[in-house]
Structure formats: structure tokens, C-alpha cells
Amino acid sequence: MSRYMLPAAVMAVCCASAASAQTAATDRRAELLRQRAAIDAELATLDAAPSPSPSSTPTRPPQSVPPPPAASDEIFVTSKALSLTTRVSGQTVTTVDAAAFRNTPATTIADIVRLSPGVAVTQGNGPRDVSVSVRGSNARNSFGARNLQVFEDDFPVTQPDGLARFDLTDPHAYGAVDVVRGPSSARYGNYALGGAINFRTRAGRDIHGVEAGFDAGGDGFANLYATIGDGNAVHDVAVFGSYVRGNGATGHTGYATGTLNALARFELGAKDRVAVKLIYNEGEFRLSTRLSYNQYLANPYQQGCKTAASAAPGCGTISVLVNGVNGARIAQTADEGDLARNDRRTIIGTRYEHDLGPDATWRTQATFDARVVNQPTGATPFRGTLNSYNLTSDITHRGSLGGMAATSFVGLFYNYLDNQSYSFNKTPGGRNGIGAPTQTVFGDVRNFGIRAREELQLSPRLQLIAGIGAERSILKVRQTAYAYPLTAAPQLTLIPAERHFTNVAPEAALFWQAVDAVRLRARIGTGYGIPQAGNLFVTAAGVPGNNTSLKAQRNTGVDLGAEVALGSHLKAEVTGYYEWFANELVSQSAGVNLLAYTSNVPRSVHRGVELGLSWRPLPGVLPGAKLDASYSYNDQYYTDFRERLTAGSVSTVLDRSGKAIPGVIPRFLNVRGGYDQPAGPLRGLGGFVELTYRDRFFADNGNLLALPSATVVNLNLHYDPPRGAGRLSFYASVQNLFDVTTIGSAAVIANSLNAATGAENPAAILANTTGSIYAGPPRTVYAGVKARF
Question: What is the pTM (predicted TM-score) of this model?
Fold first, then answer.
């Protein structure tokens, strides 16, 4: 045998052995992952079974020292990178689980998030749109979400201009919602003054087949929806689709909208994972006009308002130019003008994770978000295309620092919005009655920066969290305003705006597990938000013009809180917060035919208390009885704000210091009590009674016009057997059981002066200011059935 052949043979054997060992290791790992997936599937089946309560715990207190993630979470949800919104350390967080709303109509996401302390919900523009306010963050906006970062499966839904909408998708798609409360720009960047909300779709492995359902109710409501999904140790896919339609109780309101929502997650190998997200929604919405308070009292649901000529008392109207350019105007009702919205939204995102080593993970995420709007919603129809791009890349390292367990995070981010928008005069001719342009706004919004975070376990019971974010924002837009004098050629005015903002947001928190049953926490955080492009081009008169000197708003907040958990029978949380705002951006309506304008308030204070309770009062006698409650108290007021009012030749500066901030609901309470049969042949049969109370609040800066409080009671009965015990589940629900007429939404209105006396007009005059109020829904009956295959 040649002396060269022996080493070669030995090498071949060694290589074969190494390859065999590697193959065996790979096979063993795959087998373990399959076993883990089987365990997860069985646990999911058990978790899906109704708990001995009217609904599974809808809220969980914030976690001071998070428990180790479940195996399924490691693979598919947070992996080894630091989660953006799930199990967030260092903040007040509440998770609302699907068990709290799966046996309800869930017509909008209001049915989900109102179960969290610190959250108030009002109606947006139309019967499906919802305005969500966390600690009053969005209280002065009449649609969508401002001052709040919104995510879905950790993909951004808030565009770089700070706007998110909650009519984007169907609540039936979700398995849980995380509500992060308090100023959070160190973690989420621009516009996170109130916190963040993350909607989590259901995992495919939990669906494990097909689920289809149909809901029907009053005012023509119908929702046909289905979810298909499956998953194992190396992949998880879920696809949800729905078609929903309804006629609102208010005249000329209704909608028809279709949604596709999908999430696919794959493990590419031992070190690599990828997720792909798709949301598509398109809807046609009919809208009524917003009313004055007196119109609301006279005709809240706008009945008998087909034409202005034959309108019943209290009907709202808009003023329309006959020729669409200038000159004579006529009044039209919402029916005559066919006020509407036709919006289309497409979000595509992908997330890639790679383990750099056993303790470090690199994550990169890219999201494209296209929003196309056509909104003849009033006297000035709006059209636009707003496409945005969001890129993030970060590294998470889990190790030790000074002998203490530590999680370190650093990331870069960049987002960009291309704004192409147009406004026009409304003319007779219904939805297609579009006249001459009033303004165009072209340009872009860019945000880029860096974030860093350290989570340090000082002791088994004490955790320190510190973070910081730095961001550069550039608003580069230009407005062209069009004027049409009666006896002269059209006039065009160009107003360019290029604003640069630099913001830095630090935060720090301590979480202490004082005893096994009690957690204490303290946090100081900061938030910031730059003006939106549209804010720069509307004057205090509610017309296009120069308002480009607006400043960025900032807040610094302190949270103190505690959670108590006495076994599985009682869980409670209490949080007190105090936030100092500088240059708060406040928008208010100048009237139904005018645009909302925005100004800076030099200083204001937001403070309050939030309570959450989950209680099984009689576990031995009535194991299925359950009481859940959330309560929010918001005391928010101006500390330095002088407002100038003008009427004719009279001009007056009024001191608003000490006045309550309008639109903020001081007290918001939600209580749900009920029973679910925990065992036996009727397991899954149950129901609950739910009470929601909303305090009175002011509609104006002068605190002259107070809008009344409201209490609404809902009743629910359902049969939801555990998986395997039955394929069908049913529910019936009565919303607003006692048919109480309520204010569903109220845009903040401007104060005014008496031109003859120079005095501020009283509430009796403000009650005639239009463009503010939508009525809430009356008593409505719903029923639904769902099948599992």
C-alpha cells in the first residue's frame, strides 16, 4: 500500500464520520423540533378550551421580570431578537387575548382595545372607523390614530407622517392585542407620545385547518370571514379573508369592505428565520356630516335629511359652489352630495433574522405601505397617493454584564413617505361632483436614527432598563393654493416648507418583584412628534395658507405602578402617571365647510390613574364566574396657553391656563361580569353583561361647552365548545341594550367672539357650531356562527 493511500483513507473515514455526525445532529434537532411542535399544538388545543369564566382573562398586568419565552414564541414570534411590542420590559403593558372578544360581534377594534386600562375609544369618520386614545393621546383627532405607534405582528402600520387607521382590517383576524402605555419614543421613535399598540394575528398552528364564520345584525350588518392555517416546527402560515358590509343607523352612512391578511413564517435552518406579512384592504364608505350640538339634540341619527329643501329639523348640510369655482353656493345634505370615502391600503413586509452566535441575533425588516385615498367627505374633497417605506436593522445580544444577566440592543432605522395630495371644491353632482382645485401638497417626510437599549437583571427580583433613541426628521413639502376672484384671473400661491427636526428620547425603568404576589415598577420616559405636512398649510381661519412655523411636540412622563396576583383568582394592577408636555400640537375644527387647523400649546400637563382587575370571586361555588374591569382617569390641562380670537375688527387674547384640554374624556370605565360552564356536557355555554361608562368632556379650549356623559350596557350569550368537542360555535349579542342615545365622536371646535361686544361667545352660541358630532350607535342585535374543520 502506498504511503499516501493510508492517510487518504483515514481522512475519508474521518470526513465520513464527521458528515455522519453532522447529519445525525441535524436529524436529531429536526426530531426535537417536531416533538416541540406537537407539544405546542396540544397546548394550544388545551388553551383554546373555554376557561371557567365568561371570557378568558382579557388583560394581564405588565411584567417586571419576564418569564422565559415559550418554545413556540422562540421560533415564530420573538425568536431570539428583542421583541418590539410583546412582553415589553420597562413599560406598562396590557395584553387583551382573543378569548375576550372571539364570542362577540367584534365589528371594529373598539371591541378589543377598550378592555385595556388607559384606553378610550370613540367613533371616527364613518360607522367602521375608530379613534383610539391612549392616555388622551389621540383625543383631539376625529379619525384614525395620531401620537400613537401602531403595529401588526411587529410590522409598522403607522406611516412616517404619523397616521394610522383602525378600519384597515377585521378584528376576527387577531389572536391578541398588546397595548404599551406611556411616552415611548426611545423604543418606537416619532409620534410615540402615548405609546404603541400591536395587533397579533392568529398563528397557523393554532388554527390547524379552516375556520369560517358568518355574523349578521341590525342595520344590514353582515360579515363573512374565514381563516386557513397550519404550522409545525419549521413553518407557520395563516391567511385570513373577510367581506363586511353594513348600513349605519345614521342617515347616509354605511360601508362595504374587503380584507386579506396573511402572515407566513419559516425557519430556514438552525440560524435563520424569515417572516412575510401582507395586508390588503379596500372599502367604500358613505358618510354623514358632523353636527353641531344643537343639531345632535334635535336629530342625532339624521333622519329625514334626503334634500336640503325638504330637510327635517337638525339636518346637517355642507355649502357647495354651484359652478365649482367661485360665486354662488347652495346647501346640500350628505345624501345630495353623496359624501363618501373610497380608500385602498396595501402593506407588504418581510423580516429576516440571523443568529450571529449562540447569544447574538441580527434582524432586518423592510415594509412597503401604499395608501390611496379618494375622499369627497365634505365641501373640500381630498385625493391622494401616499406611499411609504420603512427599514430597520438591529442586533440583540443576550449575555452578562458585570456578572449580571443582560440583554443589549442597538438598531438603525429609516422611513420615507412620498406625499402627493390634492384638494378640490365640491360641486353639485353627487360623489363625482368635483370642481376646481383648492390646493396641492407635494413632497416627502423622512425619519432616520438610532436606538439603543439595555435590560439588566440586578438581582433575581430587580431589573433595570435603560434606553435612548436619536432621530432626525425632515419635512420637505410645498403647497400650491388656488384662489378664484370673481373678476380676475385665478391666483396661485406657492408656499414651500422645509423643516428639520432633531429629537433625542431617553428612558429608564426599575421593576421589582417585592414578593411573589406583588410587582412594583417605576419609569421615566420621553416622547416626541413632529407636525404633519397638512398641519403646515391651514391657517386659524380654516383655509389653505401658511402655518409652517409649527414646532415639534415633546413630553416627559413618570409612571409608578404595582401588580398583584393572588393565585389564579385575583389579578389587579394600578398605575399612576404624570406627563409634562411642551409645544403640544392641538387641532380644532373651524366649521363644517372649513379645514381643521393646528397650533402649538407652550406647556400642558397630562396626569391620571389606570386600574385593571380580573377576579374569580367564588372559585369553589361558581368556578365559571368572572369579573373583569378597567378604569382610566385623565386629568389633562393647559399650564401656559394664550389663544387669540378675532371677529371683524375686534381681536382678543384669552388665557387658557388651567383649562381642561378639550376632547379628553376624564373618566372611562369598562366592567364585564359573567359565567362560562367549565365542565360537563354544557362546557363552553356562557354569557356576560358589559357596562361601559364615558364621562362628560369639553368640546372647546374655553371649557364652555360640555358634552354629556353616557353609559352603555351590552348583553352576550354564547356556546363555544373546546376543539374536539364540537365543530360549531354560536353567539348572540345585544349592543346598547337600553337604547341610549350617545355622542359617538366630537371634534374639538373653535371658540369665537361677539363682534359687537368683544366678549367670548357662550356655550349657547358654541352649541350651534357645526362640524363636530356624530351620534353613537343605538340598540343593535347581532348573532353569529363559526365552524371549524
Answer: 0.86
